[in-house]
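Is it possible to get an amino acid sequence alongside its tokenized fold?
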Amino acid sequence: MHDDQDRKPGFRISRRGALAGAAGLALPAVLSARAHAAGKRVVIGTWGGDYARLLHENIEVPLVIPQGIKVIQDVGDEPPRMAKVIAQRMLPHGSMDIACAEAPYAWRMHNMGLLETLDEKKIPNLAHVDPNMRSDFLVPHIWSPQILIYNPKTVSAPPLTFGDLLAPRFKGKVGFPNGNNLYVMMAASLFASGNVDDLAKAKALLIKLNGNGLRLYPETDTVGTAFKSGELQAGVMWFARVVMWQNAGIPVQASFPKEGSVIYISGFVVPKNAPDKEAAYAYLNAALDPRAQEGFAKHMGYLPTVTNAKLTGKVAQQLALPNPKPKLIPPDYAFDAKITAGFNDWWQQTIQKA
């Protein structure tokens, strides 16, 4: 997101994705040979668009390239990128030193034994990462709470819980990106049971929401357009998107649900067979530099993962969490991995096609 950070969190690899991964098998030897010939070089698999541009502007140009490290961005969608890591796992050297990954994808790859256990001594800035976001396989780059979004010009009483979206006043006016379905399921479960893993209660609530005229959108940006046109009045979204759309003149506001907000985390992983792990570690440390973190907060609205980033002015005001601090709840990644395929089938047959 990256150009569109709100990707589907499932891990089902399509035939096209598998073929893309297999096609990448021919690349590692070539890239590795070139890297050794040219000196330090880091290949980062990333999303394109604004995210890739901001990586270049906030991390690579000011902090990585001055170290004599050449950076190559391997731009693409997340499922083919992960399929490539899987397809190349038996090779001495893969084609990527770093892969950008949402936390659910990172957890699944780690559980498959595909990722390097991070050497914290080589990433000094990890010491400043919020302990609640730390792991030994993912460097958390950016994060955002899932909130209720509404148009303050047309909604006089903001939704305060997920259940409020079922109100008759929102009939036909509630929506979100179709790809966010698993996270929305967690939000429904949290409201219905107090936990993120009550699938039965979540499904029942989602069926009711769908009966109230739920609108689904193919991309996150189209949701912003729908709020701008008045087609939508409320929905479920990432806090970061509210900030981005406010800055673009779209009338939206965030409401943190009383039952709590599931958090989204995106970061970097290092495949076990990364060709240049030393260059990868240098990049990861630079990504956690407070200056880089502040740049992403300013331009994408995602909160820093390091505690020593200092937000000021309008950025600090927009990204300030409510007082008292809302309940922030991480997903249950093991549960998500277990139910994702079945839930996606249910969603397509029951909600998406309804």
About this structure: Confidence is low (pLDDT under 50) at residues 3-38. Residues 15-142+265-319 form a domain with the D-Maltodextrin-Binding Protein; domain 2 fold (CATH 3.40.190.10). The CA atoms of residues 159 and 165 lie 7 Å apart. The chain has two domains: 15-142+265-319, 144-263+324-352.
